[in-house]
Design goal:
- The protein has helices at about 20-30, 50-60, 75-85, 95-110, 130-140, 150-160, and strands at about 5-10, 35-40, 70, 90-95, 115-120.
- The radius of gyration is 16 Å and the shape is globular.
- The protein has one domain (about 5-160): Rossmann fold (3-Layer(aba) Sandwich).
- The protein is an alpha/beta fold.
- The chain contains 6 helices and 5 strands.
- It is about 40% helix and about 15% strand.
- Its EC number is 2.7.7.3.
- Pathway: Cofactor biosynthesis; coenzyme A biosynthesis; CoA from (R)-pantothenate: step 4/5.
- Pfam families: CTP_transf_like.
- One of its GO terms (molecular function) is ATP binding.
Length: about 160
């Protein structure tokens, strides 16, 4: 009897990837046989890292996980999922605002494709205040962010902002 491979995708801009993202990725990788990391370009956000740099950072941060695949796509996430045999979206939440937004997105995705399920994972409380935007903002003031991002990301952030101390 053939066992169905459980495939999921965790999509985001990851500009940059944070310890909060990695918390969700590591936990989701234990649940699914294959976890795709969908790196998106958000035209509403000015990116610090190029698409290629974000992919490279994610690869370096997840190279200890053997069931991760990093992908990109254009268009609706549910369409990508249907085309690639993925039936689960993984989303992370930090607070009540995230819950409202993610529920709205889960309902819309279900409306667009009834075969898609959304699994929402609450982030570890120690990462509940972290966002990529906030990381970049506090870095402008030389804040110590070494506990908020992986070491490789910290090095790249310092290099990009000329704060290599």
């Amino acid at each position: 009897m053939n066992k169905k491979i459980r495939k999921a995708i965790f999509a985001g801009s990851f500009d940059p990837i944070t310890n909060g993202h990695l918390d969700i990725i590591c936990r989701a990788s234990k649940i699914f046989d294959e976890l795709q990391i969908g790196v998106l370009h958000n035209p509403n956000k000015k990116g610090m890292f190029t698409f290629e740099e974000r992919v490279e950072l994610i690869e370096k941060c997840t190279n200890h996980l053997d069931n991760i695949k990093i992908v990109s796509f254009n268009g609706l996430l549910v369409n990508y999922c249907e085309e690639h045999g993925i039936d689960t979206l993984v989303r992370g939440i930090r607070n009540g605002t995230d819950v409202e937004y993610e529920l709205q997105m889960a309902h819309m995705n279900k409306e667009l494709n009834p075969n898609i399920e959304t699994v929402i994972l609450a982030t570890n409380p120690k990462y509940s205040f972290i966002s990529s935007s906030l990381i970049k903002e506090v870095l402008n003031f030389d804040a110590d962010i070494k506990n908020l991002v992986p070491e490789v990301v910290l090095e790249e952030l310092k290099r990009k902002t000329n704060r290599g101390k």
